[in-house]
Amino acid sequence: MMPSGKDQLGTLSYPESAEQAAEYLRLALALIGRVGLAPNPVNFTLCYEYVAGRRADLHGALERALASEASLSPEVAVELYRQYIWDEDRRVVDAMRNELRRLIAETMTGVGEAHTRASQSVQVLEHTTDQLACDPPPDQLSGIVAEVVAETKLMARNGLELKQMLDDTRNEVDALRRDLERTRLEATSDALTGLLNRRAFEQALNEAKSGADEHTTTFCLLYVDIDNFKQINDTYGHLIGDKVIRSVAALLSANVKGKDAVARIGGEEFAVLLRETEAENAVRVGEILRRTVESTRLKRADTGELIGQITVSVGVTDYRRSETVDEVMQRADNALYQSKEGGRNRVSAV
């Protein structure tokens, strides 16, 4: 059977003690400062894995990158992260592929052995048939019958063993299928909300761009940010903050069409992809989303106390022929900034 998820992702597990982890933390932050990177999660994970020294491939690649330049560009850091850390799910898939190959090989071996045993039984039965054709005397019939009975039992037992082996193989393949589906969901889903994560959303954006270019259509991108979220956390605590994030995520999902996509791309920031939608309609959708969140009242489960009014700011833009996905995302971010600067709880389009 497959190893557990923790075993599969062993290169991303952290077995060190709290004291050792604290030392790696200090070294990682020092490295981030030395090479001129921003202390964001991607750069921190990259530097932490480097100073921990568990991965020779990453260590060598980062050493080579630093050998040419004293500093490390954000683009190079992201590429190293993608190649040596982010692609861990690919290693899981490779492990599953190897496990499936093993199952196939074992099944073929088992089927081959069963075929050999069946051929031997056929030869035995053909021999007894030849004996019967010679009209054997009565005193030899009992021996022939015993031989036929024994061979029939052997064939039945071999058939049961083959059936059991095939059942076991089917069960293992089913388990692999479930593991693969779980891995796929974990690789594309945000753990808190169940929405797409940033990686999966960017893939969806690229697919939307390819479709728009091929069919001369367009799509729109909305950025949605919960207003004054830090104040919510400070007033009610992080558990309530998480509840607010999940509630807004559910409201966004419930108010878009099935072919559209919703993702959580930051702490309290979401993105909505509206396929085959013009800018004017996207603004209307943004207003619907804004009003829906504004009119929703959340209560604390423990006290029943109403949480202060939740609002969102929305930035809207549309895809324009031949531009890159990054340009669309930047323009949506600019539109969101306009809504924030304009007083929040509003929709802006650029």
What would you say this structure looks like, in words?
It is a single chain. By secondary structure, the protein is α+β, with helices and mostly antiparallel strands. The protein has three domains: 5-86, no CATH class; 89-188, Helix Hairpins (Orthogonal Bundle); 198-349, 2-Layer Sandwich (Alpha-Beta Plaits), CATH 3.30.70.270. Helix content is 67%, strand content 8%. The protein has twelve helices and five strands. The chain has helices at 5-8, 18-35, 41-52, 56-68, 74-86, 88-133, 138-188, 198-215, 229-236, 238-254, 279-294, 325-341; strands at 219-226, 261-264, 269-275, 312-318, 347-349. It has a five-stranded mixed sheet with strand order 2-3-1-4-5, sandwiched between helices. The chain is elongated and about 110 Å long. It starts with a helix and ends with a strand.
Briefly, what is this?
By secondary structure, this protein is α+β, with helices and mostly antiparallel strands. 67% of the residues lie in helices and 8% in strands.
List keywords for this structure.
Helix Hairpins, five-stranded mixed sheet, alpha+beta, elongated, 350 residues
> Beta-strand level of the residues, as a percent range?
5-15%
How many helices in DSSP terms? Answer: 12
| Number of β-strand runs | 5
Main sheet: strands, sense, barrel? 5 strands, mixed
How many structurally independent domains?
A: 3
* Helix-strand makeup class: alpha+beta
As laid out across the biggest beta sheet, the strand order is: 2-3-1-4-5
Radius of gyration: 31 Å
The SSE string, one letter per element, is: HHHHHHHHEHHEEHEHE
* CATH-derived architecture of the largest domain: 2-Layer Sandwich
If you consult CATH, what is the topology of the largest domain? Answer: Alpha-Beta Plaits
What characteristic shape results from the CA principal axes?
Answer: elongated
**CATH fourth-tier homologous superfamily of the largest domain:** Reverse transcriptase/Diguanylate cyclase domain
Instruction: Compute the separation of the termini in Å.
Output: 53 Å
Helix content: 55-70%
Mean pLDDT: 82
